[in-house]
Amino acid sequence: MSYELTGKLIAKYDTVQRTETFKVREFALEKSDDISGRTIVNYVKFQCIQDKTEIIDKVNIGDMVKIYFNIKGTKWEKDGKTSYFTNLDAWRIEQILNPATQQNAQSNDTSAMEPLDNFTSNEVADDLPF
What we know:
The protein is mainly β. The chain has a single domain, classed as CATH 2.40.50.140. It contains one helix and six strands. A hairpin with a 2-residue loop joins β3 (22-35) and β4 (38-49). It is globular and about 50 Å long. It starts with a strand and ends in a 23-residue tail after the last helix.
């Protein structure tokens, strides 16, 4: 089963080669929720494994992102004691642009510019400073 979470990227760590055939990279998000007029902040650590360790490279600390992930659980027994571990394995990351960033990106889009229909190459501008 797949899950998703949106938040602000607050940390990303180097890739760690755990064994000859297994590598992992961790990162953390800050997730804020407004519950009954009160802001609750949670910090969530994710991991990327194997060929997915590079997906975090395309986003920067402070970016708003949407993380798609799976929940993985492990049971570990040692010396008669049992421990349980839960990992949030991220497999996709999308950067979420804020409205101001989206507006700037659209204003820089040349396809949205109006054509110069009234200009002809024979016109001479007399007000040029040179």
